[in-house]
Design a protein that fits this description.
Elements lengths: L1 H8 L3 H14 L5 H42 L3 H36 L4 H22 L4 H25 L5 H16 L1
């Protein structure tokens, strides 16, 4: 029953994308400022979800560390090693979540500091690259975050296209890719 409910609840992305394209072709989507604010709010929501996940992993970290200490005091090294391996995996996840959170915060900071239309194009290019990298990194951990980040990326891509058309500017993808690569290297460490 829950699958049936979730299918009815979620709008299929293919239908949504087609109707959005038709709607955008007939009527322009409107001013950039409210859509930038929407993107910032949605990214802030993802940051909050990452904070909640990080808190859960932190609690699990403490619990497993206590089990490791307990196993060592009982001289049960094989059990302690199993718990230590699990603790290492949890700490890797915590680190990945923290890096993803920091990357999303940097994107929010960039979006909030946009002051002119020309800044929109030069600021959002690297942000979209970082957002897609965070999305691919989070796909195994939080599938729902991957979907939401994909929608945010589509929103920002639309803003870039519209801003580029209205300002007559073109986006320099080489600069964007250098910025995105720098962030990606930080994420992978």
């Amino acid at each position: 029953m829950s699958e049936k409910f979730s299918k009815k609840w979620d709008v299929p992305q293919d239908d949504q994308a087609f109707t959005t394209r038709v709607k955008d072709a007939v009527k322009p989507p409107g001013p950039l400022k409210p859509r930038l604010d929407l993107a910032v709010r949605r990214i802030d929501l993802q940051i909050q979800k990452l904070d909640q996940a990080n808190e859960r992993f932190g609690q699990r970290d403490k619990s497993i560390f206590g089990r490791i200490v307990d196993a060592y005091t009982k001289h049960d090294t094989s059990r302690a090693n199993v718990f230590a391996n699990e603790l290492a995996e949890i700490r890797k996840m915590e680190k990945m979540i923290m890096h993803a959170r920091l990357a999303l915060e940097q994107i929010v900071l960039r979006l909030r500091t946009v002051s002119e239309l020309g800044d929109v194009v030069s600021t959002l290019g690297p942000a979209i690259g970082v957002l897609s990298a965070v999305k691919s990194g989070m796909s195994n951990v939080f599938p729902e975050a991957e979907r939401e980040l994909g929608q945010i990326g589509n929103l920002l891509s639309g803003l870039i296209v519209e801003a580029g058309q209205t300002s007559g500017m073109t986006l320099n993808f080489e600069t964007s890719n250098e910025d995105a690569q720098r962030y990606l290297l930080k994420l992978q460490q």
